[in-house]
From TrEMBL, chains A, B:
Family matches, as Pfam families: FTCD, FTCD_N
Keywords on record: Cytoplasm, Folate-binding, Histidine metabolism, Transferase
One GO cellular component, as annotated: cytoplasm
Top-level EC class: transferase
Classification of source organism: Bacteria, Thermotogati, Synergistota, Synergistia, Synergistales
InterPro entries reported in the protein's UniProt record: Formiminotransferase_C, Formiminotransferase_C_sf, Formiminotransferase_cat, Formiminotransferase_N, Formiminotransferase_N_sf, FormiminoTrfase_cat_dom_sf, FTCD
Boundaries of every Formiminotransferase C-terminal subdomain domain copy: 182-296
Organism name: Thermovirga lienii (strain ATCC BAA-1197 / DSM 17291 / Cas60314)
Residue ranges constituting the Formiminotransferase N-terminal subdomain domain according to the UniProt record: 4-181
Name of this chain's protein: glutamate formimidoyltransferase
Entries under PANTHER family matching the protein: FORMIMINOTRANSFERASE-CYCLODEAMINASE
Length: 305, 305
């Protein structure tokens, strides 16, 4: 049976002390079956963002271990940084990649949340697809007022954690754990210097403007390139395939005689999202991802582990 | 450093005796670092085709071991089958997939050929990119008259093996070893029942008709579907990308007002060949294959081995 593959992007409230950052990522380097794609510390944000992929179990084990180390070094009472946060280990999202459903990822997040509280005594809020209260699907609702405000307001039933007593951990605060879809950053550059065209198209393509449900986007000018850009996040490529977004923008831009100069995929993209577009444009019938040599090889390598 | 990845598709002259077939593929299942994608035995052809991928060293080790087993069980003097062949182990092609050049695959094939002869005493002919004589790039030149004729003609300098004495192995015959590009089977179905349109387009798209250098193709009718098909092999997708072939056919078919119904990728395809087309249609600038989550994961998994 093909093994489950998830992505996990834990965010820690430490972006300045190199030794602490290295200590936190150490478990991700050591844990077999947990693959560390990338980690980026931002000094202004005072935040560390880690990208992991692999099977659920080793990822959960490594995240717990890294969290244990983070709580030893980070005191939220003295922490300062530009990025909103409520805890030393601020957010832990789990994302399904293959052979695992969103429902299973939600279950995973919730089981992990219980274990996390039991072992670390840091209270947990569930967000996005794992939210237990509808308003908590939105991270900003949970993080409102940040650590400083939540420390006081946590006793208010409206702000009780989903797991744990209604009080924050004295130094580590609280942690938001959840499950969410893979987010693709996709930008479309247009052959014009008129930023209003990009802004108008952004409005039309995004969910809030009546466009695609899974698209968030803004229009901006690329001064140096002499182009404008529709900069987007595709938050559910299963529902809203990249090629549909691109062809929609092409159609809208044609209204002003404007063409597409090029596009950018920023950061990671799951193979399925690219295959989806290749299948459409190449009109391939009955394509099976395991026809892709590297995906088949990955499957075989993961099976033998 | 990213590890080298090759494909290897050894062909053995046994497609009927199940126990022999299983004995031959056993080393491919056992050898660590050699991944068995598929093996298919054809009774009429009396031939076994095995698909492998992995690093060069474990693949060479496993192919040598499987060849040793094949030569113990197959006697070319009694072998019969519809497929042309000159030996118990008939052909061993090596194909570069990633982090390895064709030149390195040629070197690999020639080193393996020497080792193969030294250990098994089966003479070797080099073909395709590994050919030492220009006419031997073509497999059919080497296999002319098959085992039965070659057994006599091998003493003729024109037919001397590239490695070994000018005589065949008494039971195992000879083996053709070489390096070749990955071959993609790509079919385009047209919305018409007029097979002449498919035949005409096939002629125009293929190298022999003045079309793309890396395309071989024929036109045929798909009676049950009420369509016709341009059935192709793309023998070098680096030179001739799939999307160019498809758009060329679309353009030609438009001449008769005929449209494309769909396409088929038959068998395996390297990720690079799909990414190439996704990049073109989605107009993606500066795309790096390691942005694909699964390809990055494969890279990390292969590094830790």
């Amino acid at each position: 049976m093909a093994k489950q593959l998830i992505e996990c992007v834990p965010n820690f409230s430490e972006g300045r002390r190199k030794d602490v950052i290295e200590a936190i990522v150490e478990p991700f380097k050591k844990q077999k079956g947990c693959y560390l794609f990338d980690y980026r510390a931002d000094e202004d944000h005072n935040r560390l963002v880690v990208s992991l992929a692999g099977e659920p179990q080793p990822i959960c084990d490594a995240v717990l271990e890294a969290s244990r180390i983070a709580m030893q070094h980070i005191d939220m009472n003295t922490h300062q940084g530009a990025h909103p946060r409520i805890g030393a280990i601020d957010v832990i999202p789990f994302t399904p990649i293959s052979n695992i459903t969103m429902e299973e990822c939600v279950e995973l997040a919730r089981k992990f949340g219980e274990r996390y509280y039991n072992e670390l005594k840091i209270p947990v809020y569930y967000y996005e697809e794992a939210a237990l209260r509808p308003e908590r699907t939105r991270l900003e609702v949970i993080r409102k007022g940040q650590y400083e405000a939540l420390k006081e307001e946590v006793t208010n039933p409206e702000r009780h954690p989903d797991v744990g007593e209604p009080k924050l951990h004295p130094t580590a605060g609280a942690t938001v754990i959840g499950a969410r879809k893979f987010l693709i950053a996709f930008n479309v550059n247009l052959n014009t210097t008129d930023v209003n065209i990009a802004k108008t198209i952004a409005k039309r393509v995004r969910a809030s403007g009546g466009g695609f449900t899974a698209v968030k986007g803004i229009g901006l000018a690329l001064e140096e390139k002499g182009l404008v850009q529709v900069s987007m996040n595709i938050v559910d490529y299963d529902k809203t395939a990249i090629y549909r977004v691109l062809e929609f923008i092409r159609m809208e831009a044609a209204r002003w005689g404007v063409t597409i100069n090029g596009t950018e995929v920023y950061g990671m993209i799951p193979a399925a999202a690219l295959i989806q577009s290749a299948e459409y444009y190449l009109q391939i019938d009955d394509f099976d991802p395991s026809q892709v040599l590297e995906l088949k090889l990955l499957e075989l390598m993961r099976e033998e582990d």
